[in-house]
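Hey, I was hoping to borrow your eyes for a little while. No rush at all, and the record is pasted right below.
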Amino acid sequence: MKPCKYAYKLVRDSSSEIFKGFGFKHLSDATQYYVHPNNQSYKGTTTLCQPIGEAVMLMAEFIFALVERNDTAGDILYDDGAGNVYLDLPVPVEWLTNNVTRAYRYKAYLDGASSLRVGAYDENGRFIASNPMLFTESYKLMPVLAVLIAQYLLTDDDYCKAFTEFSDLPDAASFVNLHEDFYQAYKNNEYQVGYFDIVSVPKVCTYSFRKKYAAIKENKAAISESPDVDIIPFEPSEFSEEYRSLIPELSEEFVLPKNLQTVSNAVVSGDVRALLLHGPAGTGKTMSCKLICRETGLPVMETINCTESLDEFVLGKFLPDGDKIVFRESYVTKAIRSGGAVIFEEINFARPQHLAFLNSLLDDNGFVRLDNGEVVRRHKNFRFFATMNIGYYGTKELNQALYNRFNAIAELAELSDDAITRMLTARVPECAEHTEKLISVYHKLKKKISSEELDMVISPRNIENWARLAKFEGYIQAAEKTIIPIAKCDRSVEDAFRGIIMLYKWN
């Protein structure tokens, strides 16, 4: 049985409308979310399905009660990897009173890749015997879909994040996206489905969704409640007037991440001379380095993108000067000699021979030897910052010897949707009414790239560029010059990107 395919054949006897599903019906007006009215050539065919829609709504209510209020019975239990998933799902009273189901409780067990067992229980916890007249196939399908949604929550962080946000604040657009993402992920999956009395929790399911999210909530609360740290900057006299002019001046919309506040004080004290920031593209790693420098009063002497401009002359080179050949040191060397910061972007893409000088520079007795033979000792106020993208096809590991020379290594998580919204509305106020759609497209494109392991990267920066150009030629046309090129002329991927963009209405 292919549950997602089978679901499209079923409609609940009492109604064709998805219960609590924002008025959308089976194969009905939800199409507007999938087909852009001004792009008739795009053949969007996917529509909402009542059983899937109701399973999404039922699970959303369950997750909200489980995660936000912690006042419901039931749980999702699973093994390492979530190949085996056990779902104990109480049914809200209003689902019973509205004849959505006759079961007070569902249990379901996904046993590996292809076997799935479900059971339904009455108000006294007794197993409801399979009776086609009393308990139809459409009702049995609900726990099947619910346990598959549960597995998707456990195996896809983006879907889990979107689902928990929807559970807290449901809206029609998110509902459609959750429905569509689940269908596309599971539409071809086939299972042997059996209806049984599930009397006990499978022994392999040792992890609890309830406990997992209780711990996450506690940790988030602890982080959010931690006080801001007062940053004590360098004395201005530590740097020359010329170099003080290189202290970054940044818009107030850019705020130093809280987890880097204490690091900033360690940078000033000298306990952190070399800092590595890593994370996905577009999370503001270089900007965070500059924010540390802004807050600490540290001049940025040089910013080098290691994929483009780092070469063998990083410390300086011999150049003709009239009838002489003289050695001209670089700003990297000036920072080493006189103090200040240098930032190496995407350091893991640099050729090892171009980074060899860092081994001696970042040692306790730091120094570099220039091509003219001079040995330059590291100034007490020299600081080295580096960034590294991770998490997409084509990234390289950093040399272990160099990696170990960083005094601190911090991860910058992906920007939250709220942070992206603030960034977009601050920099491109004209896109304010479209930010929700822009972010939704961003997540769908990321998922497409990740699931197919494409050698492509999309970041919030791409979305900002899209919004900027859209001011002049509209979102559909602007996407052709900002978003579609991410596909690197792969025509099938380009068409897939266009299809995602056309899911939404653009003014």
Residues 26-46 have pLDDT under 50 and may be disordered. The longest helix spans residues 50-69. Residues 3-223 form one domain.
